[in-house]
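Q: Could you fold this chain for me?
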Amino acid sequence: MLGTPARKRVALGSSIGATIETYDFIGFGTAAALYFNHVFFPSTDPLSGTLLSFATLGIGFAVRPLGGIIGGHLGDRIGRKPVLVGSLLLMGIATVLIGVLPTYAQVGVWAGILLVAVRVVQGLAFGAEWGGAILMTFEHAPWRKRGLYTGITQAGFPVGLLLANAAFLLSVPLGEQWAWRVPFLLSAVLIVVGIVIRLKVEESPEFENLRSEGEVAKNPLLEVLRDDWRNVLRAFCLRITETAGYAISVTFVLSYLASEELAARSTTLFALMLAAGLGIAATVTWGALTDRIGRRPVYLIGTVLSVAWGVPLFLLLNTGQAVAIVLSFVVSYAVCQNCLAGVQGAWFSELFSARTRTSGASLAYQLSAVVSGFTPLIATALFARTGWVGPALLFSAYGVLGLVATLLTRETWGRTERAEVAALERSLAGPPADPPAPRLTTTASTKETR
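A: Sure. Below is the predicted structure, expressed as structure tokens.
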């Protein structure tokens, strides 16, 4: 109830691991929007190159559910910690390989094929990552602060986003050949740090209890699909608003600003870095807020804002003004996206029992990645036919889906749950001690004697 002594170290270790894996995975999205359309694909047709680049990005998201299934099964069968270490190592190897891949000009069509192969490995690793990291933190954390602690782990994602885009911004002067390679090669340094930290993280106490009692699920995936498929579906819809919204408001917008010549590359990267920097504190703050008022109210705020933000987002972008573009990224990421991400760690974990928690939460979380992974591709196709209105309405539509799912998903940390935990804490603390007897001063004693 009060959390384990290692709760802070676990939260920090999970957050650092999430930072590294996000650096690797999201860095690919930035490179896909800014470089890969002409580096790995024919440059004769810019629109086709952009579509192919985003399709490659989507493939990584498409295989994430498989990574989530594998990681969830192993997490519920052998423990959370082995999944954390293995997924990070796999992601690091794949990312470094991207930095040394040959280009289309060097090997022709094989460049795209090799990029797809490495992207598949990235997707598997990232799919396995989230469930292990979040659940390790959740199961070590105090009951009354699980929103805060899982928010710390979720904050690893904006940190990774910040570092990835900082690397791309600083590498711009290196020229087209090295500007996209260096950020991926730098992942080798981060991966060593991450592995060392994760090896020191202790196994989840809830999983250890299950194992000691012989209650480990034999087939957690089958069990969660049979008994808890409704929560999988609800969490899937909740997640789409956040991750698909990011795919439009960040990944697609990076390409949109470049293709329409609305902002210089350095301006967009700066705007994204600022939003990511603010998002670090925002994610933790949103998570902590759920500990005070519940998971659902905070998620309602995020989904309502997402519904309303689609058209204003593109109206601001179309001004071409640097201040408006920066504001667009800040609202899209630190407010709309982080508001939802800060809730998911605790809410999704509480929807499932400890026996199948990794499988259930990971499956729902990663299935939504299939939709979000191909969203930039869909947004690009909509833009080709309808202009900016299509992507704007798509962003709002994802918000509507999340809003409906929020209303249909049970509150797991409402007023009743908070009161029950508070009462349990008071009972464990025991009756209050009798107040000490007043001590008389010398003067008072003298007066009493008299």
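A (continued): Confidence is low (pLDDT under 50) at residues 438-450.
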